[in-house]
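Page 37, top half.
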Amino acid sequence: MKMSIFVFLLFILIPIQFENPEAGINRADSDDGYELVWSDEFRGSGSPDPAKWGFELGYVRNFEAQYYTNRKENVRIANGKLIIEARKERIRNNDFVSPKDKNWRKRKRISEYTSASVTTKGLAEWKYGKIEVRARLPKGVGAWSAIWMLGEDLDELDWVKSGEIDIMENVGFDPNVVLGTVHTEAFNYENGTERSGKIKIKDPHREYHDYAIEWTPGKIEFAVDGAVYYRFRNAKRSYAEWPFDQKFHLKINTAVGGTWGGRKGIDVGSFPLRMYIDYVRVYQKKL
C-alpha cells in the first residue's frame, strides 16, 4: 500500500508511545485518582526492613505445625525478592504460649517445621485503597500461604469481630486455586458463612502473579493480574457485617498444616517450601 507524503511525515514526526509494561502496576499518576503511599521493592539483601516489617513468633493459630521464627533460614531478602521459607527441621521452641489452646502448645517442646510470618502491625496500617502483592507461591501438600489483613481494633475485640481480609490464600493440596475472602462477626468460617471467591490460575508456583484488592467504603474487590474475580459489597446494615471502615495492617506468611492446609496431610518430600514476594505496593486516593 502506498503511503502519502503527508501521512509519512506525520508518522515520523509524532513519537510512537509503546505500552509501558509497568503501567498496570505504578498508578501514582494514573487517572483513577490513586497514588502510591507505601511500598517495599525488597532491594538489597538480608533481613526485611525493620521500619516496615515485624515478625510473628512461635505457634500462633489454626493448630498449624510450623514454629514461626525471624531467622534468615526462614525469612530473608535476596535477588530483589522477599523469601519466606518453610523448612522440615527440628527446633526447640521457647515455650511460647498463646492465650488459646495452652495445653496443646505447652506439649510441643520440639517443633518439626519452621517458617515465617511478616507483618506491618504497629508500623503501617491503612483505611481503604489498593493493595497489590506480586508473588510466586510454594508448591507442596501441607503448604498454606496467605496475604491478608487484620483490623486496627484487633487487640480490643475478638478476631472475628475486628474483621479479616484475605487478599490471597492458597493450599498445597489445591495448588492452582487461590481464594479471596472476608471474615466478620456475621460472616466467618467458624459458622461456615464466610464470604469468598476463588479463581483458578496457571502455575502460581512457577510464575509471578499480582494479587490485589481494591477497598472502598462500598466494596472490596479481589483480583489476580488485574482481573476482578470476587466482589464483597457493603450492605450498610451493621458493624457485624462490615467492620472495614477502620485501618488494617498486612501479613504475609507460609504456614504448614493446620485446620485447612493440613486436611490432606503434609508431604515431607516437598520441603523446603519457598514463597517469593517481588513487591508490596499500597495506593490510596489523592486528597
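Page 37, bottom half:
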Amino acid sequence: MSVQKRNNVKVQGSGPATMVFSHGFGCDQNMWRFLAPQCSSRFRTVTFDLVGAGQSEIAAYDPIKYDHLSGYADDLLEVIDEFSMGPVVFVGHSVSAMIGLLAGIRAPALFAGHVMMGPSPCYINDGDYVGGFTREDIDSLLDTLESNYLGWASSMAPAIMGASGQPELAVELTNSFCRTDPDVAKQFARVTFLSDNRADLPKLTAPTLIVQSSDDLIAPVAVGEYMHSHLPNAMLRIVENVGHCPHLSAPCASADAMDEFLATLSFR
C-alpha cells in the first residue's frame, strides 16, 4: 500500500522548505484549513491523516504497531521521506506534537523546526509536575470512553474545543470524534493519555515553538511552561483562547505566533 493512500496525503504550494501538518486525537487534516493554505503561498505544505482517522486507509491499522506513539512517528518519517522537499517544519497538534518530537529525535537532520499546538508530554500529575489530570481522572475518562464512546465524544468534544462564541466548532469536533472508528479511538486515547515523553524533551535540539492557549482543559499553561523550560531551543507563545484547538478557534493569533517563529529560521 502506498504512503499516499495509507495516510491520504495532500500536497500544495512550493517554497524553500516543506511544512508538514499533523492533527490531534479524533481529528483529521481538515482541522488545518485555516493555517495550511496561508502557508502554501510561501512553503510546500503537506497534510495527512493519521492511520485510523479521516480518509486514511483503515485496513492499514495495526493494533500492535499503533500501541505506541513510535508507530505513528514511523509513518510520519515515511510521509516526509516521500513528499517533502528541502528542510521540514513540522506542525503538530496535541498528541501529534509528541509524534513529531519522537520523529525529530530519530532523524534530526530532516527538521528545521517544530511547531507544537497545545502539546503535552504527560497528562498525569506527578509530584511537582502539573499535567492537568490525576491518574484517577484519566482512568475514569478511559473507562467512560470504553463503555460509551459516542456518549463520551458528545460530552467531551465541546469541552475540549471551548470557543463558546463559536458553537459550530464544537459541533464539528463532535462529528469528527463520532466518525472515528470506536475501536481505533479507544486504543489511540489510551496510548495518548497514558504516554509520558518528559524524558524525551531534552533530546529535541531543533528550534521549537510552543503555542499554548491561555485556558486549555487538556494542556494547561503549566504544561507549556514546563516544556519551555525542558526543551533546549524553545519559544513559548500563549494566545488568548479558551480551548485545546487554537488553530481553529484562534487562527489569527496562532498564525502570528508561527510567522514570528518562522522568521527566526534559516532555509537553505
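Margin note: The CA atoms of residues 205 and 232 lie 6 Å apart.
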